[in-house]
Amino acid sequence: MLCSRRGCRAPAAWVLVWNNPRIHTVDRRKTWTACDDHRDYLADFLSVRGFLLETVPFADFTG
């Protein structure tokens, strides 16, 4: 799995779990993957919008 940041081809090290409450039901969980270099960038993008639910190491993600 690769990082979700546009143009990045690095392997994913993290899973960012998110939900947009305006268009998704409460139980819906969307995911983006992130490399170490883009984890903060993607997490900040989601956090500013109130979407980020959790960040999990890729190896530990079971979703």
Morphology? globular
Question: How much is the average pLDDT?
Answer: 97
**Low-pLDDT stretches:** none
Structural class: alpha+beta
Our count of domains comes out at: 1
* Spatial separation of the terminal alpha carbons: 14 Å
Number of helices: 1
In percent, how much strand structure appears in the residues?
25-35%
**Helix content bin:** 10-25%
The main pleated sheet reads as: 3 strands, antiparallel
Q: For the largest beta sheet, what order do the strands appear in spatially? A: 2-1-3
Succession of helices and strands: EEHE
Strand tally is 3
Radius of gyration: 11 Å
List strands and helices in order, with pairings:
Elements: E1 14-18, E2 30-34, H1 39-48, E3 52-57
Antiparallel strand pairs: 1-2, 1-3
Walk me through this protein's architecture:
It is a single chain. By secondary structure, the protein is of the alpha+beta class. The protein has one domain (14-60). The chain contains one helix and three strands, in the order ββαβ. It has a three-stranded antiparallel sheet, with helices on one face. The model has no long low-confidence stretch (mean pLDDT 97).
Features:
Acetone carboxylase; alpha+beta; three-stranded antiparallel beta sheet; 63 residues
